[in-house]
From TrEMBL:
Residues 124-218 form the Acyl-CoA oxidase/dehydrogenase middle domain. Residues 231-396 form the Acyl-CoA dehydrogenase/oxidase C-terminal domain. One of its GO terms (cellular component) is plasma membrane. Its cofactor is FAD. GO terms for molecular function: flavin adenine dinucleotide binding; oxidoreductase activity, acting on the CH-CH group of donors. Keywords: FAD, Flavoprotein, Oxidoreductase. InterPro entries: Acyl-CoA_Oxase/DH_mid-dom, Acyl-CoA_Oxase/DH_mid-dom_sf, AcylCo_DH-like_C, AcylCo_DH/oxidase_C, AcylCoA_DH/ox_N, AcylCoA_DH/ox_N_sf, AcylCoA_DH/oxidase_NM_dom_sf, Mycobact_Acyl-CoA_DH. Belongs to the acyl-CoA dehydrogenase family. Pfam families: Acyl-CoA_dh_1, Acyl-CoA_dh_M, Acyl-CoA_dh_N. This is Acyl-CoA dehydrogenase. It comes from Paraburkholderia pallida. Residues 10-119 form the Acyl-CoA dehydrogenase/oxidase N-terminal domain.
Length: 400
């Protein structure tokens, strides 16, 4: 394929840049420092995007989205990352939104879509359970019908940002007498419903991203079941197969490249910028070459997705492995580049407390680097582990 952007895409990039220059408030720029922007920044930015008609960059125009091609979406993500714009709500925007557009009843759409556009309701994903992660179909959280409600009992784990979310999309078992995939349903649940308890899991970076979520006789209207009772597995396959080009998280890689370049230019060794050191420059060049390769593969997968090619699926698995391993390598290099100072985990600015006065080399870059590096260890686990992705490649590509 031809990797040169056509004139239309170049013009689109200019349009996005102009939009960001005009509409991204200075106090929001830079709030993408961590894995996800704080709730207030994320919601504020979503409102701004929505006012401009860009509230749903991944949705088709028929559903009120921008109707952008996968390549345009990449450009949008790249430019937002470069400008330091806040993240969007991945769960509401990218995962649930397309599912609702495809499977939801008119009432469900009317209830939820406007809030996703406007950024007034945040979502979390309740799939994994202790013992049911990669083998999701074995999940045990049960929903038993009682009149026009389900009564839900069970436990979810690793529920990202459940403590900030307003609603959760939840996989439950509604039938134990059939094949395990056929007995699963997909429910939309208000997090304020009595009987839901969220307990934090503090991760290796010292931050609160994850939770255990418990359901104790939680009553959920039957009307909140998406796609019909027992259709949860089909809905989930649709949700998980939705976006393959995004699995490498190119915006995160581009941010890491920017940070590495800043560290190379800012830190000094023997009076010279670090980037003049051959060992640093060589390692940076190698990582940037790898990033270039991943970036070209992302573009390729975006084109395959546009053409609805089945190859996009297996390429998405390859990208997940390559992209997340590269994230880990780049973030480790960043911390190593700080030398002895890298052994200290400076809190990210958003997590800093008053009195945090440790000397930080490359101030403005150093804080949060170590905790981000630790958190990136998880990138080869969430969204499907690398081993599971290799299994998909072996099966789909090599028919093993
Ligand atoms: C940071 C983070 C955020 C997350 N956010 C969410 C969230 O918001 N919502 C949610 O529902 N879940 C979330 N998860 C859970 C995530 O989806 C699971 O951790 C993941 O699917 C793996 O499942 P598991 O942890 O049960 O490990 P297991 O599936 O038990 O795997 C254990 C080990 O066995 C290997 N393995 C398993 N099956 C196979 C196989 N078939 N072939 C080869 N090797 C295999 C795995 O690769 C792994 O090394 C998150 C996880 C993390 C780390």
């Amino acid at each position: 394929m031809d990797f040169q952007p056509d004139a239309g895409l170049t013009a689109f990039r200019e349009e996005v840049r102009a939009f960001l220059r005009a509409h991204l408030p200075a106090d929001l720029a830079g709030s993408q420092h961590g894995v996800r922007s704080p709730r207030a920044a994320l919601m504020h930015w979503q409102g701004i995007l929505n006012e401009h008609g860009w509230g749903a960059p991944c949705w088709e125009t028929a559903h009120g989205g921008t109707g952008w091609t996968p390549q345009q979406r990449l450009v949008f993500d790249e430019e937002c990352a470069a400008a330091g714009a806040p993240t969007q709500d991945v769960f509401g925007q990218r995962l649930l939104g397309p599912v609702l557009n495809h499977f939801a009843s008119p009432e469900q759409k009317a209830e939820h879509l406007p809030h996703i556009f406007a950024g007034t309701r945040l979502w979390c994903q309740g799939f994994s359970e202790p013992g049911s992660g990669s083998d999701l179909a074995s999940l045990r959280t049960q929903a038993v019908r009682d009149g026009d409600h389900y009564v839900v009992n069970g436990q979810k784990i690793w529920t990202s940002y459940a403590h900030e979310a307003d609603w959760i999309f939840l996989l439950v078992r509604t039938d134990t007498s059939v094949k395990k995939q056929a007995g699963i349903s997909f429910l939309l649940v208000d997090m304020q419903t009595p009987g839901i308890t969220v307990r934090p899991i503090i991760t290796i970076d010292g931050c609160h991203h994850l939770n255990e979520t418990f359901f104790d006789n939680v009553r959920v209207p039957v009307a909140n079941c998406v796609g019909g009772e027992g259709a949860g597995w089909s809905v989930t396959k649709f949700l998980l197969n939705n976006e393959h080009a995004g699995t490498a998280d190119l915006p995160a890689l581009l941010r890491l490249k920017k940070q590495l370049r800043s560290v190379g230019a800012t830190l000094r060794v023997d009076g010279q910028p670090l980037v003049r050191q051959p060992a640093f420059a060589l390692r940076l060049a190698r990582l940037e070459a790898e990033l270039q390769a991943v970036s070209m593969m992302v573009q390729r997968v975006a084109v395959l997705e546009q053409d609805h090619s089945p190859t996009a699926h297996v390429m998405g698995s390859m990208l997940k492995i390559r992209g997340t391993e590269l994230q880990q390598k780049m973030s480790e290099f960043l911390v190593e580049s700080l030398g002895d100072y890298g052994a200290i985990a400076y809190p990210a600015e958003s997590h800093a407390e008053e009195g945090d006065t440790l000397p930080v080399p490359a101030a403005g870059i150093g804080p949060g680097l170590a905790s981000a590096m630790f958190f990136r260890r998880a990138s080869t686990i969430y969204g499907g582990t690398s081993e599971v992705q290799r299994g998909i490649i072996a099966k789909l590509l090599f028919q093993l």
